[in-house]
């Protein structure tokens, strides 16, 4: 694979710039410079200003040779991200302006000059799927996982430390996350592994994204991977099917910083493989950060050794938001909305949202977004009256306490005097089966979890088992008034 000549970048400051005017006079010819200006303009219009500034502002055209456009970026992290997530869009945009361009070639700039990537390779020729290079596909499949596996899951450019709103319930987790990012950026390990747990919408994913951004921005050569659990499972299963599991394992073990989100969804062979990978990474002093919705001891789908490994690191909980933190989050989102759309949120509206939306941060974001949309559609100013009308369903949601499966297991275990681990076991005795079925029924009735999710939380059972239990309890309640009253009592206990 031909490398782009470094001499094409003489005179550049190496930062890549943030606007169309930062194209060098000595690099491309004037037609190429004008071509790239048009491509950048199309990209900015297609993806919006925020995404463009995050990903494409530092992308530069080195030269066009035959049908190949040579592009460069200042960091390895940015090169991997653009190549894995936007290469097709960039190629299509080039072809709109110049149909003769059929391939893209990415390199990383060093001291303002483009150069090929070092081992492991990241530079690649991006071609249309309809016209693959005959030799490129087998080589890529046999030597390493595909690029989308290498890049991990998509990072959100809005989830940074700067946009994270701190309060008493999350300030310790924020401090630990910043310390991990700083250590990773310097090639060292702080607490390892770090396990952050909280219910949905309290900022776990935000912190993991922020760690990835902070560590990756500081050191372009650092191998940083963020994966959701389902993404990890997908790539592991795909690698097994393609008989390239060894390559995937080897690649994971070369990671400097591995961030796994939504750990509660990891199961089966993927969970076992994560256990092996975790052990290897810890032995090699590599940093691991994991997030889940429950403490490690409650992740029943994981092997006991994995749970022990996670528990033996630093376990950091994030608690619910108090009124002041909710108000500060709404203020931050309102400021962003005013900057972007010119809408004004009076203090009374901010206080109203903070008081009625008590579930989690995503609902706070959603409440602000709804009011912005209502204002834009109707031109009605944002007032408490508009908020009451627009957010009525969130007020109703506030009236009922959110019930977790973990709460159900605790209450049912205590009420029927059956150990929690027995409810999750395979025991079939009547004194265990009936409470287990009632617990599954309550999980289906009082939570938004799907049947497969409930099955996973009840010892990895199939969704058909959960459905059978729910129907069984419903039938028993029709025939037994005492049981109906007993279950209503359990519901009241859970909703208190």
Automatic annotation (TrEMBL):
GO cellular component: cytoplasm; plasma membrane
Subcellular location(s) per record: Cytoplasm
UniProt-annotated binding residues for ATP: 201, 203-205
Start and end residues of each stretch annotated as Disordered: 1-32, 128-154
GO molecular function: ATP binding; DNA replication origin binding; lipid binding
Domain Chromosomal replication initiator DnaA C-terminal: 404-473
Domain AAA+ ATPase: 190-409
Subunit structure, as described in the record: Oligomerizes as a right-handed, spiral filament on DNA at oriC.
Annotated spans, Domain I, interacts with DnaA modulators: 1-131
Transmembrane segments: none
GO biological process terms, semicolon-separated: DNA replication initiation; regulation of DNA replication
Name the UniProt record assigns to this protein: Chromosomal replication initiator protein DnaA
Comp. bias intervals (Low complexity): 1-12
Record-linked PROSITE patterns: DNAA (PS01008)
Keyword Nucleotide-binding (UniProt): yes
Note on domains (UniProt): Domain I is involved in oligomerization and binding regulators, domain II is flexibile and of varying length in different bacteria, domain III forms the AAA+ region, while domain IV binds dsDNA.
Region feature (Domain IV, binds dsDNA): 376-496
InterPro entries reported for this sequence: AAA+_ATPase, Chromosome_initiator_DnaA, Chromosome_initiator_DnaA-like, Chromosome_initiator_DnaA_CS, DnaA_C, DnaA_dom, DnaA_N_dom, DnaA_N_sf
Keywords recorded for this protein, A-Z: ATP-binding, Cytoplasm, DNA replication, DNA-binding, Lipid-binding, Nucleotide-binding
SUPFAM superfamilies: P-loop containing nucleoside triphosphate hydrolases, TrpR-like
Role: Plays an essential role in the initiation and regulation of chromosomal replication. ATP-DnaA binds to the origin of replication (oriC) to initiate formation of the DNA replication initiation complex once per cell cycle. Binds the DnaA box (a 9 base pair repeat at the origin) and separates the double-stranded (ds)DNA. Forms a right-handed helical filament on oriC DNA; dsDNA binds to the exterior of the filament while single-stranded (ss)DNA is stabiized in the filament's interior.
Pfam family of the protein (one): Bac_DnaA_C
Entry's family note: Belongs to the DnaA family.
């Amino acid at each position: 694979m031909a490398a782009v000549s470094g001499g094409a970048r003489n005179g550049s400051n190496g930062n890549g710039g943030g606007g169309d005017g930062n194209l060098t006079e000595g690099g491309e010819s004037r037609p190429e410079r004008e071509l790239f200006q048009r491509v950048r303009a199309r990209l900015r219009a297609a993806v919006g200003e925020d995404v463009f500034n995050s990903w494409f502002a530092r992308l530069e055209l080195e030269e066009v040779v035959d049908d190949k456009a040579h592009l460069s970026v200042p960091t390895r992290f940015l090169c991997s991200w653009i190549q894995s997530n936007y290469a097709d869009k960039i190629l299509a945009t080039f072809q709109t302006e110049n149909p003769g361009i059929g391939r893209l070639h990415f390199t990383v700039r060093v001291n303002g000059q483009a150069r090929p990537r070092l081992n492991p390779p990241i530079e690649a020729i991006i071609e249309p799927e309809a016209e693959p290079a005959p030799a490129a596909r087998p080589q890529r499949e046999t030597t390493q996982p595909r690029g989308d596996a290498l890049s991990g899951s998509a990072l959100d450019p809005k989830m940074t430390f700067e946009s994270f709103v701190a309060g008493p319930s999350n300030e310790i987790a924020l401090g630990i996350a910043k310390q991990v990012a700083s250590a990773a950026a310097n090639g060292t390990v702080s607490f390892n592994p770090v396990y952050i747990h909280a219910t949905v919408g309290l900022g776990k994913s935000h912190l993991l994204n922020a760690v990835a951004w902070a560590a990756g921005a500081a050191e372009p050569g650092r191998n940083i991977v963020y994966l959701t659990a389902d993404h990890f499972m997908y790539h592991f299963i795909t690698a097994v099917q393609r008989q390239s599991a060894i390559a995937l394992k080897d690649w994971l073990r070369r990671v400097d910083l591995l961030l796994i989100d939504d750990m509660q969804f990891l199961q089966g062979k993927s969970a076992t493989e994560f256990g092996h990978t975790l052990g290897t990474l810890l032995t090699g002093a590599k940093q691991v950060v994991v997030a889940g919705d429950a403490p490690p001891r409650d992740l029943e789908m994981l092997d006991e050794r994995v749970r022990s490994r996670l528990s033996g690191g630093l376990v950091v909980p994030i608690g619910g938001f108090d009124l002041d933190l909710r108000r500060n989050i709404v203020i931050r989102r309102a400021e962003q909305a005013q900057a972007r759309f010119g809408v004004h949120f009076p203090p009374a509206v901010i206080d109203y949202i903070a008081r009625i939306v008590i579930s989690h941060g995503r609902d706070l974001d959603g409440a602000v977004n709804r009011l912005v949309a209502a204002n834009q559609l109707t031109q009605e100013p944002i007032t408490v009256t508009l908020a009451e009308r627009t957010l009525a369903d969130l007020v109703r949601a506030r009236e009922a306490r959110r019930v977790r499966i973990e709460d159900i297991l605790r209450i049912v275990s205590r009420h029927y005097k059956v150990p929690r681990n027995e409810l999750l076991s395979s025991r079939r005795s009547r004194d265990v089966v009936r409470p287990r079925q009632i617990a599954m029924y309550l999980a289906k009735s009082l939570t938004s979890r799907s049947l497969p999710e409930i099955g996973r939380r009840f010892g990895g059972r199939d969704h058909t088992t959960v459905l059978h239990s729910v129907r069984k309890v419903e039938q028993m309640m029709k025939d037994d008034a005492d049981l109906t009253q007993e279950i209503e009592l359990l519901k009241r206990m859970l909703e208190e």
